[in-house]
Amino acid sequence: MWRNTILSVVTISLLTAVAIAQESRSEISVQGTGYFTKDSTGQGIRQRATDTGGFVVGYRYNLNHWLAAETNYGFVRNTQEYSSSLGTSGIQSDVHQFTGDLVFKLPHPGLHRVNPYLLAGGGALLFNPRDNSLLAGAGTQARGTFVYGGGADFPLSRHFSLRGEYRGLVYKSPDFGLTSLNNDAVTHTAQPSAGIAFRF
After folding, report:
1. Alpha carbon distance 82, 146 (integer Å)
2. CB of 3 closer than 8 Å to CB of 11
């Protein structure tokens, strides 16, 4: 009896290990993205950012069938424009995005070719002025950001999917360390994207 019990436990353990080993848990993705930032106003200063496009690359680890952890890097280049009673100035900058989030996969009965999900997390945006910026004293600045969004994967094969996604970023407007540009306001960036994901 004990021999049969031990044999059953060993067999189940081996089958479980094989199943886990064969299950693809990791994903990498590459997406083209839009970058649309809401104007913000405070302390007599109005700040707006030019609309632009860029890219986001990510790594996702599937913890189970409904939850995953994800990290992303994104890049865009735009111009931050500031208007006040003293005039208008602008700083062209590279914006580097470093974020991590949890991905909640939604049940999708009847949607065999669509895998929807929601996401929430945080990270940092690094605003790096370009050499051609005309405003003296502008320096690189990091801003913490809250990230939320959702999307869907459309499987093409066992390993490849098309991915459509929306990410919202909430953060304090950048001032590049210059008091004259500080409007002490929170802004929002809408970041729709589309690309491809590879699961391995």
Report:
1. 23
2. no
The dihedral built from the CA positions of residue 74, 125, 104 and 109, taken in this order, carries a sign that is negative
One-letter amino acid of 60? R
Domains and CATH numbers, the chain: 25-199 (2.40.160.20)
Give the CB-side neighbour count of residue 177, counting CA atoms within 13 A. Answer: 12
143-181 pLDDT, tens per residue? 999 999 999 999 999 999 999 999 999 999 999 999 999
Q: Which of these, 103, 18, 16, lies nearest to 65 by C-alpha position?
A: 103
Residue whose token pair is 């104007």: 39
* Model-wide pTM > 0.90: no
Three-state SS string over 173-192 comes to CCCCCCHHHCCCCEEEEEEE
pLDDT digits (tens, 9 = 90+) for 58-78: 999 999 999 999 999 999 999
Distance CA 68, CA 151 (A): 14
Compute and round to an integer the Cα radius of gyration of the chain. Answer: 22
What token pair was written down for 119? 């996401």
Residue with tokens 């353990």: 13
What amino acid occupies position 122? G
Q: How far apart are CA 31 and CA 53, in angstroms?
A: 11
